[in-house]
Amino acid sequence: MPLAEFLEALESTATDAVQAFNDANSNETLETARVEFLGAKNGRLKTVQKQMGTVENDNKKTAGQKLNETKQQIQSAFEDAKNRLTGGTGVIRDPNFDATLPGRLFRVGRLHPITQTIEELKDIMGRLGFTTAGGPEIEDQFHNFNALNIPESHPARDPLDNFYIRVAEQTTDSDDNLMLLRSQTSTVQIRVMENTPPPVRIISLGRVYRPDTADATHYPMFHQMEGLWVDTNVTLADLKTVLQLFATNYLGGSVPVRIRPSFFPFTEPSVEADYFWDGRWVEFGGAGVVDPNVLKAVGYDPEKVSGFAFGLGVERLCMIRHQIKDIRDLFTNEVRFLHQF
Ligand code: FA5
């Protein structure tokens, strides 16, 4: 092919390409032009390029230079068109899109109210210096009972009050070895203290399981927030301060907190914590000063350190905040209910 003809073919390809890219006004027209001119197989530029082999050897250098210039010219016309259409964002705007129209709500998925509550509790307790710890939901009896000072004969171990399970690896039929779905997050206190020397200041949020009949305030699976603070000289007064700060942060304002005597095998003294809300006292959970036997079970010296622990029902906290009257509403997964949060 004579050089002049080759250069002319390049020239007209460039003119048509620039025109097509300038005219492109949508994703589709830009893509069509790209394939027509820059397509790797049958694009017009490629077709002209293939003819370079037929240009006389003496003219090949000139032909090559012009080919490169043309390539760059077409490529940059393409880039310009793309930037023009995407406003530099890489996303091509619909030419029919009218940014001046009023916005309409687009419903996307959202976090379950319990998940939202958990995130908020972590945030509040994090600001009070508590880090988050975790533990397994399938527990052994040592962590769910023994280490928590709950003796073999204690009614809390009753099969009617626990979901015992036999796991595959278990070789013996002895009930002593049965695992269980943890009935309280207090198990995590033990796991943390076993692995961490004092001081510890943790919370643990997770699911617990009890064969309770479902009613407006009970469900067989629910969540607890466990708290544990062990250090030199931590007292019941610190517990009350933390519960009070928590209540103020979670419920807002000055929510009265009271503690009543109670009993848990792993705390001494033990208390029940109530908050005054909506004209009545509402129970949030149990708490107390960690029993010296528990500290001993994890290798802590009760002469040197002391601490408090608490376990609050997350569903109850969530229900109070959002005025949910029935805990079962949280688990039926009715979309119209969930969309309110
Ligand atoms: C405990 O589970 C103790 N582990 C709490 C504790 C921790 C005491 C650390 C001392 C030191 P209790 O069984 O009371 O305590 O449960 C605590 C809270 O869980 C209750 O106050 C309630 O808010 C919630 N809860 C208990 N059972 C259910 C249920 N079936 N459904 C929903 N929430 C429940």
Features:
single chain, 341 residues, alpha+beta, BirA Bifunctional Protein, domain 2, 2 domains, seven-stranded mixed β-sheet, three-stranded antiparallel β-sheet, 11 helices, 10 strands, 38% helix, binds adenosine-5'-[phenylalaninyl-phosphate]
What would your notes on this structure say?
- With 341 residues, this protein is α+β, with helices and mostly antiparallel strands.
- The protein has 2 domains: 3-86, no CATH class; 113-135 and 183-338, Bira Bifunctional Protein, Domain 2 (BirA Bifunctional Protein, domain 2, 2-Layer Sandwich).
- Helices cover 38% and strands 20% of the residues.
- The chain has 11 helices and 10 strands.
- It has helices at 3-23, 27-38, 44-50, 60-86, 113-127, 141-144, 186-195, 236-251, 292-297, 314-322, 335-338, and strands at residues 131-132, 138-139, 163-165, 179-181, 200-209, 221-231, 257-264, 267-277, 280-290, 306-313.
- A 7-stranded mixed beta sheet has the order 1-5-6-10-9-8-7, sandwiched between helices. A 3-stranded antiparallel beta sheet has the order 2-4-3.
- A hairpin with a 2-residue loop joins β7 and β8 (267-277).
- The chain is elongated and about 105 Å long.
- The structure holds adenosine-5'-[phenylalaninyl-phosphate].
